[in-house]
Each structure stands twice: as structure tokens, then as C-alpha cells.
Design goal:
The complex is a heterodimer.
Chain A lengths: L8 H11 L12 H9 L9 H11 L36 H35 L6 E10 L6 H9 L6 E12 L2 E11 L5 H9 L5 E11 L1
Antiparallel strand pairs in A: 1-3, 1-4, 2-3
Helix pairs in contact in A: 1-3
Chain B lengths: L6 H12 L6 E5 L4 E5 L6 E2 L1 H11 L10 H18 L5 H14 L13 H16 L2 H6 L1 H11 L24
Antiparallel strand pairs in B: 1-2, 2-3
Helix pairs in contact in B: 1-2, 3-5, 5-7
The chains are: A alpha+beta, B mainly alpha.
């Protein structure tokens, strides 16, 4: 991959062809890929390479925000059409050891830079995360509350259940469902914040009305 | 020919893209099916451009109408083109002219108004969708600049919604055609 030598006319022509049907080097938003290639070009491409020129002018309009564009810069050879040989780093192959050493140290520098970039990104991510308000996990619970017998005052029972108040607990609609022999159970909906209210606590508080409540079950439990 | 996105549907798409809560009632009026926005207080708004500009202001995204005077003018110009030419023309000849115009305009631009994404891009995308769906591979390549722009806009977050993804081939087949 790569565009070849972007300072030469041939390299620019490859870039021009590459950009004919693309707005950006990678994907559909301006990114560090565009900046990397942009910086590798000496100046605006000639007018006859209008695709490259259009892209150049467009990227130039992002110059002020270029540090904040997404993505991580890669070696120039990683961009561009797949069928063009990467010539940006290959020239050292035929040279002597000194050159290779030089290239090695170059590499190291680059990795340090990458490290710095990574750390910066991590810090950025952390600060972003801490700023974001924690999502409050809520659940919708359907409770079945069963009375002792058919003589239990269901209105009073419901009143008792609804009298339970806790931070993060909201009572919803309710209905009486016949279970047989004239006995009805109370089905009541509530929404709780997971961190603040648990079903154990609900059960404890509801069964505490032992004059009315025989037992309590969780009929349905849904995370919202 | 695929059904065109027109009038009310298009404005609902725009509403969703702008993140407005919705609930506006749209109707159509007259032979040319001009969209109308009914409002509870006062007279309704008539016409695609008028309603679209109203929605953009309502969503407080004025940058979509252009920032500089030139951009604002260009956005207006392309909105007008959209309403008069793209909606008006339906023959093969008209379509060709539209694509040719756009292809020339987009040769040195990434968005219709230059370097920023505007309402003109959104409405032109909705207006051209049914045309682009029916283009052959060769035509898509012939109007390369339009294809590039269209592909770019349909990948712009929130624009395409339920509309079909128009496929553009990555490798050009007819390299000497233009």
C-alpha cells in the first residue's frame, strides 16, 4: 500500500486517482490519516489533479482542529491503494549498516511517540469517563402479594404496600387477580434503582404487614 | 423506478436527523404535492425549503444553513435547485442534466457548500436517493463526483435512516470512460 513518493508527480497522481471516489483517505470522516498524508505533501497539488486538490483544500479547512481529529497516525505506507508498492521506507534495504542503525533508532523514536500518544489518549478517555454521569441502572418489578384469606381487606393491603417508601422506589399500577375460592392477590408494578432498592428489602418490608400479607413473590423482573 | 422520498416523509426524516421530538403534522397541497406544516397557532408553513429551514432553526442547528454569507447563498441556491429541478424533472433527460450539473459542481468540493455539511446536502441526498438507486454501475462511474459525494453523505451519521444503502463499487471498471 501507499502512494509512493508524494513529493513527486507520480505519487500525486496515485493520490489523485485514489481520491476520485473518496472524500477522505480513510472512512467517511476526516481523521489523522488525512493529516498524515496532508503533511507529507509539499503544497497544493496542481489544478489538473482536481481530486487531490479538492481533498487538499478540504483538509486544509480542518487545519485548526487537526489535533482533535480521530484516529492514530500510521506510517504513510499504510494508506492508499493496495496495489501500489510502498516505497516510503524501503529505500534503506540496499544501504550499509549505518543506515540500518539510523533507521532502527528512528523506529524507537516513533514507538516512544506512539506511547506518548497512547498515554494521552488514555488520559483523555479517563477524563471523559469521569465527566460522564454514571448511568443509573433501574429495574421494573412486578410483585404478587397474597393475602391470608378471602376476608382480607385488599384495599387496606394495597394501601399498606404503597405506604412503603424508599429512596429510588416508585410504585406503579396495580390490579387484583383472582386466584380461586374468592381469594384475590394483588399484582403491583414498581420501578426501583438497582443500587438503592433490592427485592429482599421489598419482601421484608411487605411481609412485615403480617396482618394482611401471607406471602410475596416477584412475578417479573426486568432491567430497564 | 424506486419511489421517491417526498414531502412529508422527507421532512420526518429530517426531523429525526435533527433530533427533534417529532409530533409535527405534515400534509400536502395542490397538484405538485407541496408539503405543508400545520401548526396550532397561526397559519401553517408551505413548501419544502421553508419548513426545512424552520426545522433547522427549531433544532438550533443554524450551522446547517451555512456560516458565512457565501455558504448561506450556496445552500439557498442548491435548495432551490432541489425544489425546482430535482422535484420538477422526471424524464431521463432531466435526470441526466441534474447529474451532470452536480458532477461538475462537486468536482472540487466535498460538500455542496464546500467544506461543511449543510441542509443542502441532506435534502439533495433525500431528493436524489431514488435516482441513485436506479443508476447502473457505468452511470455511477460516469458521475463519479456525485457518487463520491452521495456515498459520503449516506455514511454521514443519522442521514440515511431507513433508506436503502446505495452500493458503490470500490474498483473502477471503466477507467478510460472519463
Amino acid at each position: 500500500m501507499g502512494f509512493g513518493d508524494l513529493k513527486s508527480a507520480a505519487g500525486l497522481r496515485v493520490l489523485n486517482d485514489f481520491l476520485a471516489d473518496k472524500s477522505y483517505i480513510e472512512g467517511y470522516v476526516p481523521s489523522q490519516a488525512d493529516i498524515a498524508v496532508f503533511e507529507a505533501i509539499a503544497g497544493p497539488p496542481p489544478a489538473e489533479l482536481f481530486h487531490a486538490l479538492r481533498w487538499y483544500n478540504h483538509i486544509k479547512s480542518y487545519e485548526k482542529q487537526k489535533a482533535s481529529l480521530p484516529g492514530v497516525k500510521k506510517a504513510l505506507g499504510k494508506y492508499g491503494p493496495a496495489d501500489v508498492e510502498d516505497t516510503t521506507g524501503g529505500a534503506t534495504d540496499s544501504k550499509d549498516d549505518d543506515d540500518i542503525d539510523l533507521f532502527g533508532s528512528d523506529d524507537e523514536e516513533e514507538s516512544e511517540e506512539a506511547k506518548k500518544l497512547r498515554e494521552e489518549r488514555l488520559a483523555q478517555y479517563e477524563s471523559k469517563k469521569s465527566k460522564k454521569p454514571a448511568v443509573i441502572a433501574k429495574s421494573s418489578i412486578l410483585l404478587d402479594v397474597k393475602p391470608w384469606d378471602d376476608e382480607t381487606d385488599m384495599a387496606k393491603l394495597e394501601e399498606c404496600v404503597r405506604s412503603i417508601q424508599a429512596d429510588g422506589l416508585v410504585w406503579g399500577s396495580s390490579k387484583l387477580v383472582p386466584v380461586g375460592y374468592g381469594i384475590k392477590k394483588l399484582q403491583i408494578q414498581c420501578v426501583v434503582e438497582d443500587d438503592k432498592v433490592g427485592t429482599d428489602m421489598l419482601e421484608e418490608r411487605i411481609t412485615a404487614f403480617e396482618d394482611y400479607v401471607q406471602s410475596m413473590d416477584v412475578a417479573a423482573f426486568n432491567k430497564i | 423506478m424506486a419511489a421517491a422520498v417526498r414531502g412529508a416523509e422527507e421532512l420526518e426524516l429530517l426531523e429525526r436527523l435533527l433530533g427533534l421530538p417529532g409530533g409535527n403534522k405534515y400534509g400536502v397541497q395542490g397538484e405538485r404535492k407541496v408539503p405543508v406544516l400545520q401548526s396550532n397557532n397561526g397559519p401553517g408553513l408551505r413548501g419544502l425549503m421553508t419548513i426545512a429551514a424552520h426545522l433547522v432553526r427549531q433544532a438550533r442547528k443554524e450551522q446547517l444553513l451555512g456560516s458565512t454569507a457565501e455558504e448561506k447563498a450556496v445552500v439557498q441556491q442548491w435548495l432551490e435547485y432541489r425544489v425546482t429541478r430535482v422535484n420538477g424533472g422526471s424524464s431521463k433527460e432531466d435526470t441526466r442534466t441534474i447529474l451532470k450539473d452536480l458532477n461538475m459542481h462537486l468536482e472540487d468540493k466535498v460538500y455542496l457548500a464546500g467544506n461543511i455539511f449543510t441542509l443542502a446536502d441532506i435534502l439533495m441526498y433525500y431528493g436524489l436517493h431514488h435516482i441513485m438507486v436506479d443508476l447502473t454501475v457505468q452511470e455511477k462511474e460516469k458521475y463519479l463526483n456525485v457518487s463520491r459525494w452521495f456515498n459520503h453523505i449516506q455514511h454521514y451519521p443519522g442521514v440515511r435512516q431507513h433508506l436503502s444503502d446505495v452500493v458503490f463499487i470500490k474498483n473502477r471498471l471503466y477507467t478510460n470512460a472519463h
